[in-house]
Specification:
The chain is α/β, with parallel strands linked by helices and 408 residues long. The protein is built from 15 helices and 16 strands. The strands form two sheets. Strands 1, 2, 3, 4, 5, 14, 15 and 16 form an eight-stranded mixed β-sheet that branches. Strands 6-7-8-9-10-11-12-13 form an eight-stranded parallel β-sheet. Strand 15 and strand 16 form a beta hairpin. Helix 4 packs across helix 5 and helix 6 runs parallel beside helix 7. The structure holds N-(iminomethyl)-L-glutamic acid and fe (iii) ion. Fe (iii) ion (FE) binds next to loops. The site of N-(iminomethyl)-L-glutamic acid (NIG) has 14 residues, from helix 3.
Amino acid sequence: MPQTLFINATIACLDSESGYGLREHGALLVEAGKIAWLGAMQDQPAVSDAEVIDCAGRLLTPGLIDCHSHLVYGGDRADEFEMRLEGASYAEIAQRGGGIISTVNATRAASEAELFAQALPRLNSLLAEGVTTVEIKSGYGLDSGNEIKMLRVARQLGSEFQIRVQKTFLGAHALPPEYAGRSDDYIERVCVEMLPRAHAEGLVDAVDVFIESIAFSLEQGAKVFACAQALGLPIKAHVEQLSDLGGAVMAAQRGALSVDHIEYLAATDVASLAQNETVAVLLPGAFYVLRETQLPPLTALREHKVPMALASDANPGSSPVTSLLLIMNMACTLFRMTPAEALRGVTINAARALGLATEIGSIEVGKQADIVLWNVTKPSMLSYQIGINPCAAVMQAGNWRSQAGLSR
Ligand code: NIG
Ligand code: FE
């Protein structure tokens, strides 16, 4: 059985209730794709023919997890970036038929092969920084065929690269033009046709909705959730990004895995996330790109011990960002999160946001061996530096994905 023994490592285990769970002078044994042993270097197990990696004091972390992305889409929205710089708001552009709908047009026009090719550089950017799990949403197809096309591309990315892809159905992302003025009819279509079809193809790990004045109402979101749950699927939601419609509380009360964005979530509503073990997914990339000023309720989230995850929200409109390291920096600089909260946000709490915390997200015996070796010796370096990628080597499920920087 192939074994890899890491020695002389600074290990951020992320196995405790807060902080890094840091072990200095640590050792770690990987066997059969899992973490088999973890402890102090002087106690390392006797192994006869294991591959031995001397980390020379460098940092090991769990593989990074991007728990909210729209990585598969057609075209770009650089022109809207320019319009916003000239004063137009994100909501105004959407109301004029741009925004999400312009990406829907480009995505509908693209073949599966074209969408795959366009997603590749974005995926490569995540891979280069040690991401071992990425969630990818549909939501730019807005009819059965095109939503399924997007999810197939997401699945193909996961089968052609050493990365786990979680696929989320986001049919209720925007109202397609052919349903103008008939949003209830569209939601009905999502529930009775689009979601069941995508699910029947095995393409749906979770169901998301966008609850906002420019998207769907609370009642419409609740209806999609009921349909998802009738199929046994977990739910999550884009809520309180531009205004407070009460979406986060509604989703949490229905047991949502996560509520995402939540800048406009009232501090008094945070308790309901804690009561329902719903993760708060914060997306500083969208906050930054849209030049938002309303901060998420960090103090209340901490007080109620709500797990906070961070994600790229990689999408062509509000967050053309494919660097989780940059997202960690933004979370610290813009949201005043600590570097430890930032690392928890892209590891253990991101795993929770995907319902995968028993399998991945921390370095603990029995968990999948998704491990990154970094060319730094302290974990705050990951949030602190901008523009340097210190990722030295990546192991996914016990197999090397890249080992260029193993020795230095
Ligand atoms: O997470 N909020 C809605 N959806 C995306 C933006 C999608 C887009 O602008 O294309 C988001 O920010
Ligand atoms: Fe999003």
